[in-house]
Design a protein that fits this description.
Blueprint (H helix, E strand, L loop, with lengths): L10 H13 L7 H26 L5 H15 L8 H27 L7 H13 L3 H16 L6 H6 L4 H17 L12
Helix pairs in contact: 2-3, 2-4, 2-8, 3-4, 4-6, 4-8, 5-6, 5-8, 6-8
Length: 195
């Protein structure tokens, strides 16, 4: 094994976030609640960004990088249970946002960045595919957009603002976290209690 297990992300780290969510009164309209959920999402995206960066730097080969991404995905996309159903739905939203982050990272490692179009064009194509109820194609386009973001292309959030609420807008939210993570892969402090 070339990298120690859990170097990038751990079950314990994810569980710490879930414990915090469990302990807090969550109101998605409330700024602190929204920030906690965003930090949960960003933290996982940062772990993925670090794997991809280690791969780009030659510290991980493609196979190991994909295994690491898989490990993070298994932790983050596992079933979550809270007594509060709304919390489950909110975390489920975060998990859905991150689906395309994992796929984009794997696609980037195994196939490189998509070359056919810009991030914006892929996102618009995804929205069109979703409108036609072709979810697989929509996810494919968002993943291609993600590979371009990893390759340093820019996601213009004005495009995101035009999207109808749905899977594509949720995935694009994940791409936004990925973009932040790629540009500034600083770990979000789990104990960041600044008011």
């Amino acid at each position: 094994m070339s990298a120690p297990p859990n170097e990038f992300y751990s079950e314990e780290r994810w569980q710490n976030w879930l414990d915090r969510i469990s302990d807090e009164e969550l109101d998605p309209e409330d700024e602190d609640s929204a920030r906690l959920l965003l930090n949960l999402q960003d933290d996982a995206a940062i772990a993925v960004a670090k794997v991809v960066s280690a791969y780009d730097d030659g510290d991980l080969d493609a196979e190991t990088a994909v295994e690491e991404i898989d490990d993070i995905r298994e932790i983050v996309l596992g079933e979550v249970e809270f007594e509060d159903e709304e919390k489950e739905l909110l975390v489920d939203d975060v998990q859905t946002s991150l689906v395309c982050v994992f796929y984009a990272a794997e696609e980037y490692v195994t196939g490189g960045p998509a070359e056919e179009a810009s991030v914006e064009e892929y996102v618009r194509a995804a929205a069109d595919a979703e409108a036609e109820e072709n979810v697989d194609a929509a996810l494919g386009y968002v993943v291609q957009a993600g590979t371009r973001i990893i390759d340093d292309d820019e996601l213009d959030l004005t495009v995101a603002e035009e999207l109808e609420y749905g899977l594509v807008s949720t995935w694009v939210n994940g791409l936004d976290s990925l973009q932040s993570a790629m540009s500034d892969p600083e770990v979000v402090e789990e104990d960041d209690e600044e008011e």
